[in-house]
């Protein structure tokens, strides 16, 4: 599926704001998570994965509507979870070898913010861990993932096609069709 002009613009703006954060496509994350390639680009990343850790940097209301299977919500109230908690999780997994940490949010700003903070924390507090941990932001965030029809679950672990818009105007611009939902299904 061709990337829309809207998502190319968002990707470019986020890339300029966070030049040190590595981006990873939704296709590659889908391949890493589910093992099914949807483009030739995923093949070049096949050996890079190690243990996959997916971090959702959106608010609890957004996470309740939909998220990627096994994603850990790292947002508490109005403040992102202290990256120390994530670093501790990665340290516990260290004996597993390589780890790929994918951060995401609605479109990429909060995911990039968290990816940058986590990378900086690891660089300062645990540089040895950075030898086996790669931190990424998922380009286009959950909006792109949802628009591509990739699998998501809600707060009750049910399959869903809905995505919380974060801000309603942004949702109307970036979410296609009838996939916007402000609240999870009961």
From TrEMBL:
It comes from the Eukaryota. InterPro entries: Rhodanese-like_dom (IPR001763), Rhodanese-like_dom_sf (IPR036873). Pfam families: Rhodanese (PF00581). This is Rhodanese domain-containing protein. One of its GO terms (molecular function) is protein tyrosine phosphatase activity. Signal peptide: none annotated. One of its GO terms (cellular component) is cytoplasm. Residues 48-154 form the Rhodanese domain. Gene3D superfamilies: Rhodanese-like domain. SMART domains: RHOD.
